[in-house]
Design a protein that fits this description.
Elements lengths: L6 H9 L6 H15 L4 H12 L7 E6 L5 E5 L12 H12 L7 E7 L5 H6 L1 H21 L6 E12 L5 E15 L5 E3 L8 H21 L7 H4 L3 H10 L5 E7 L2 H11 L10 E4 L4 E4 L5 E4 L1 H9 L10 E5 L9 H10 L4 H4 L12 H9 L14 E6 L14
Antiparallel strand pairs: 1-2, 1-12, 3-5, 3-7, 4-5, 4-11, 5-6, 8-9, 9-10
Helix pairs in contact: 1-14, 2-3, 2-11, 6-7, 7-9
């Protein structure tokens, strides 16, 4: 049985569970979708997982109270990273591990985007384009940070890849959380940026554009790009590059974070977000599904369009969508990051107190984590409040079990 089984359901309940469920939509319409559209093996695997999540197909357990006879079935979660119902506890555990690395300084939020002209290239070369997006964004920030005319220090950076807009269109972009300063290159001082300013966004955009297109051109030269026909024809890719070099790459800096706790809260919303959460599904009929987008606006898609748009955002297998650079890179966590923290201790502020974390999260059980987050104890009967809940396994139905393997 999955150790997190049943717990995400309790987190959903505490947050106010959505009326609609993406899994139900998939189960109702996926057969008709397959008749008209091709799914890659990985996309098909994700769809199967979401369809099966928290259903009898995956098995589960039955809690029975020995005092009052209360019975509560709960089915296993699929734990697929694209599933809107399976991120809650993984997210909290990840966040609490990261909390110990947050420095008591200000932070900036920088977003790196790609122009629409690259959408067709990105769809055909997802892994490569996502890798280049991370590389170019990180190199841009680290290069400017180390420039002695600007800061002359090593920044701390955490980046998260998102590939969607609120209406599920394909739009790869990076959210970067950047320390408001860095460790001097000689390791002796902490050098701070201004409270409201990291680097000029036009400078960021131009340097980022040059780095990304330079990497893309090298990938093309090395034969790594699968191009659509119009770009694969003579001179097509070179014309695209020329057009893109003449175009601004949009990089924008959002309002700086007020402190470490605000950074923590932000990461909680963004790191494990999937393309479509159940809470954004406002209405479902046989012909149309209405989604919340932004600023009170909505978009309505047919079930076929919804599934087609959703599977565009399935990440390549084992692709890391959260990455750390500079002081936050794994190679620096126990050296330069700790040096930076030591230098900042002499000017400790209330912000630093926010980063203290006395909870022994590594030894915390799933039930203990759930009880801390929600106040719900899975060992207590919700009907009579007695402590005599007994758990019995619920096996998947026979049709959902894999066939037996014949002896060799």
């Amino acid at each position: 049985m999955h150790p997190q089984q049943g717990c995400a359901r309790q987190l959903d309940r505490k947050a106010g569970r959505s009326r609609y469920d993406l899994g139900e939509i998939f189960r109702a319409h996926i057969d008709a979708f397959r008749d008209r559209h091709f799914l890659s093996p990985l996309q098909a695997q994700v769809v199967r997982a979401i369809c099966a999540c928290r259903t009898a197909q995956l098995g589960g357990h039955l809690d029975v109270c020995r005092d009052c006879g209360y019975r509560r079935p709960a089915y296993n979660s699929c734990r697929n990273r694209h599933c809107p119902k399976c991120q809650a506890l993984d997210q909290h555990r990840w966040l609490e591990r990261r909390l110990s690395r947050i420095l008591p300084v200000g932070y900036f939020h920088v977003v790196f985007t790609l122009p629409g002209e690259l959408a067709s290239v990105g769809l055909r070369n997802r892994r490569l384009v996502y890798e280049l997006l991370f590389r170019a964004a990180a190199e841009t920030l680290l290069t400017l940070g180390k420039d002695p005319q600007r800061l002359g220090a090593l920044l701390g950076i955490t980046m998260v890849l998102h590939t969607w807009t609120r209406d599920l269109r394909f739009h790869p972009h990076i959210h970067a959380i950047v320390t408001g300063g860095g460790l001097s290159l000689d390791g002796r001082r902490w050098l701070s940026t201004g409270e409201k300013y990291l680097f000029a966004v036009k400078l960021l955009g131009r340097l980022y554009r040059g780095k990304f297109l330079g990497h893309l051109a090298r990938a093309y030269k090395d034969g790594q790009l699968d191009l659509p026909r119009d770009l694969a024809e003579d001179g097509g890719f070179d014309r695209l590059l020329s057009k893109l070099y003449a175009k601004d790459f949009i990089v924008y800096a959002k309002r700086p974070f007020a402190g470490a706790q605000q950074v923590f809260s932000y990461l909680g919303r963004y790191t494990h977000r999937v393309a479509l959460s159940n809470h954004r599904i406002l209405n479902v009929t046989e012909q149309a599904i209405t989604l919340a987008t932004r600023d009170g606006k909505t978009v309505t898609l047919s079930p076929e369009e919804l599934i087609r748009h959703f599977v565009l955002h399935v990440l390549p297998r084992r692709f890391q969508k959260i990455r750390h650079y500079g002081l936050m890179a794994s190679a620096n966590v126990h050296s330069r990051l700790e040096r930076a923290r030591a230098l900042l201790e002499s000017t400790a502020t209330a912000t630093q107190a926010e980063t203290s974390h006395p909870i022994p999260i590594e030894s915390e059980t799933t039930n203990e984590l759930l009880q801390r987050l929600t106040g719900i104890d899975l060992a207590i009967c919700p009907a009579c409040q007695g402590p005599r809940l007994q758990r019995f396994p619920l096996d998947p139905p026979a049709y959902a079990r894999p066939p037996p393997v014949a002896a060799a």
